[in-house]
Amino acid sequence: MKMNWAGVMPAVTTKFTEDDQLDLDMFSTNINAQLEAGVHAIILGGTLGEASTLTQDEKQILVQHTVDLVDGKIPVVINIAEQTTKGAILAAEQAEKYGAKGLMILPPMRYKATDYETVAYFKAVAQSTSLPMMIYNNPVDYKIEVTLDMFEELLVHDNIQAVKDSARDITNVTRMRNRFGDRLRILCGVDTLAMESMLMGADGWVAGLVCAFPRETVAIYELVKAGKIKEAKAIYRWFMPLLELDISPQLVQNIKLAEVATGIGTENVRLPRLPLQGKERERVMAIIDEGMRTRHTILDLVNVKVNV
């Protein structure tokens, strides 16, 4: 299966039971809802997936289980967030062995690498694998920016093909398009900037609230691509208070609460995370409750389908 870096790609949550085991039944329920909505890939092992808390055995189980679930319909992409180049290369090898079709990769974790070190890190991983790669550019949270000049160096590798851009600067899309044309596929990595990014030429959306609202997320993408901006805007405006739950240190807890509301998840998180408490929980629940209350008013707009 050729990796097409376009469309809606959920960065899915990992489901746990109340006794802190993998909840593969609920995980399957969610993945099946994503497939039914028409998402274009599944991304495992991101922040939303609580990957830093998973054992290697659990990661292997999740990858292989997801590959079996999607059954060749869409690709499975694995996020790599390692502290060392050696660790990242090993993670890429394991991802390929377990059946992944693509990699999303962050700069080295817990070390503010120089531009030279960051480029060398990405190149080493690219040279170690045949899998196509998407660079995750998130200078806001991870303090390292992958600049246009750095991408120029990286694109000499045929398997470095895309960027998940979370720089929170819409003009970045235009700068990348002007510099690289279609050599670099662009996916928005910030829920609250997704429609704007796609209107400026982004190829897709690595999404968070899609975990709870897959149909609405896919509908926005498809309506934008079909030029039905008025319809897309109506859904996006309804969605915005919910999308803002993604830009929070507690995004995992927020989105898992939303998954409970739509029946495709549980609230269980893994320590050190804990479920939301007190006034913050009340605030988040009020946003989710209002979104659910008004959801029926936009469902007629959700059924538009176009080809990517």
Automatic annotation (TrEMBL):
<keyword id="KW-0456">Lyase</keyword>
<dbReference type="Pfam" id="PF00701">
    <property type="entry name" value="DHDPS"/>
</dbReference>
<dbReference type="InterPro" id="IPR013785">
    <property type="entry name" value="Aldolase_TIM"/>
</dbReference>
<dbReference type="InterPro" id="IPR002220">
    <property type="entry name" value="DapA-like"/>
</dbReference>
<protein>
    <submittedName>
        <fullName>Dihydrodipicolinate synthase family protein</fullName>
    </submittedName>
</protein>
<comment type="similarity">
    <text>Belongs to the DapA family.</text>
</comment>
